Amino acid sequence: MSEQKKRPVTKMVPFRTHAIVPDRDADKSPILECHHLGIDFGGLTAVNDFNLIIGRTEIAGLIGPNGAGKTTVFNLLTKVYQPTRGTILLDGRDTSRMSTSQINRMGIARTFQNIRLFKELSVIDNVLVGLHHEMDYRLPSAIFRFPDYWRGERIAHERARELLSIFDMESLAEAKAGSLPYGAQRRLEIVRALATNPSLLLLDEPAAGMNPSETSELMDNIVKIRDLFQIAVMLIEHDMNLVMGICEGICVLNFGEVIAKGSPDEIKNDPVVIEAYLGKKDGKEGTA
User: Which of 154, 180, 196 is the last residue of a domain?
Assistant: First the structure.
C-alpha cells in the first residue's frame, strides 16, 4: 500500500465503567450506548452481551474475523433485527420498539457491504432520495406545482450538489449511478447516507473492492466528514491499515462476543485479538 499520511493521534480517556472516548468528547453525553445487547436466531446466539459506548465525534471501528457478528450488530442498531435482549440508547433515547425508518429519523444512517444504489437513476437523484425529509411540501403542491413545491425542490437540489461537492462528485450529478466506477459508487452511497442528516454514520466495509489509492482517499474523506459535520462514524472493515489509521476506539468481536476494546495500539498488541485472527499456535503456525 502507498505510504499513508501521518494523522494526529487522539487521546482516549476513561468514560464511565469499562469505556473510553476521545478526550474532546469526555464532557459530552455519548451518541451511542449499547448495554448487554444480544440476539438469538432459533437456538443460535449470534450476538451476546454486546456493550459499547461511542463518543459524539468518535471514529470507531468494529472488527473481527468473518462471521464474528459485526454486520448483525449494525442490523441491530438500525432495527433490521429487533434485539432479543439488551438496550440501545441513541443520544440518550431508548430505541426499543423503533422501526428502521424511525431510527433513521432519530439520527442513524448506514451503508452496506453490497452497494445499494438506485443504479438507473442519476447521481443527484440518488442523493435526493436521502433528502426526502427536507421536502416539506404537500401532495397537492407537487401535483399542481405550487410555489412551495419549486422552492422545496430548489433547496433540495442545492443541498444535494453541496453534499456531492464534499467528494468532488458535483460534475457527475447527471450521470447514471450505475455507470460510475466502483469507488465512486461507494462514495455516492456515503453521500446519500449523509443526506439524511445523521448524528451517527455506520459504514459496512466501505473500502471493500477499493485499490490502495481509493482507500487512502476514503480515509481522508471519513475524517473530513467527522470534522465537517461533527458526527460520529462507526465502521466495519477488514483493511487494518484503514482501521489503525483513522479509528480512535476499536471494538473486537469473535463468535458474537466482545473480546477486546481499546485504542489502536492496544488492539494491535492484544494477544487475544491476535489469536482470534491468526488462530492459536500449538507448536506450528495457526490458521485463520
Answer: 196
